[in-house]
Amino acid sequence: MSQQMRAIVKEVANVFPTAIISGRCKEKLHEFVQLPELYYAGSHGLEIIGPATVSKHVDQSRASQAKENGLVLFQPAKDFTNVINKVFHILDQQTRSVPGARVEHNKFCVSVHFRCVKEKHWIGLARCVQRVVECFPNLRLTQGRKVLEIRPLIAWNKGKALDFLLKSLGLNDPNTVFPIYLGDDRSDEDAFKVLNRKKHGLGILVSAVAKETNAVCSLRDPSEVGELLKRLVMWKQKRLFKYL
């Protein structure tokens, strides 16, 4: 994350409850983002932590109760730690012969990146990963943007994480809250679906090309995302100034 984008997200978090939901583990999210004001949902929402201080923009009683019930460290897939470790080591060994392939351990998810793999090797790499996953019936294989991901076979994804955060923080009232979710990956479609099901909120796909999506709107790149976030902050500040 660039310093400019980090500053913008920090401003947003000062006036709105803000979360980052990612396929990467929460430790790597902290390392990339470096903002203690945020809620972090790592490993596609399989581990969720909140800021040390509850945001003034959320329901204080609900948020405090959620922290006691595990929001600070919410891990619905904690029993899968050993099997994920095993799969990581197997794939790390078996994919070394594929130039450009990179296996990443995201605590409750194993990611096999093929962004730097030549297209002629894609099918062979996918078959290798598929064979390994077939040996573990409690895991499932999904595909993101130039990445294959092995996750626990439980009903949990970015959409579930979004729903959990909204409910746990008392942000589920459509009369007072309008959730906005931005994403650029196939796994973000689960969150877009949640907003569509609620018939409330705005899902925004970030993509330079037109593609099929459950999002309602789209932005072309991170620079447009930054511009949207800045405008949201300006809108909120004007409203606060109005009531002073």
From TrEMBL:
Q: Can you cite a GO biological process for this protein?
A: trehalose biosynthetic process
Tell me the pathway: Glycan biosynthesis; trehalose biosynthesis
Query: Which SUPFAM superfamilies does the record associate with it?
Result: HAD-like
Name the reaction it catalyses.
alpha,alpha-trehalose 6-phosphate + H2O = alpha,alpha-trehalose + phosphate
Instruction: Name the keywords, alphabetized.
Output: Hydrolase
Cofactors demanded by this protein: a divalent metal cation
State the function annotated in the UniProt record.
Answer: Removes the phosphate from trehalose 6-phosphate to produce free trehalose.
Family membership noted in the UniProt record:
Belongs to the trehalose phosphatase family.
Q: What is this protein called?
A: Trehalose 6-phosphate phosphatase
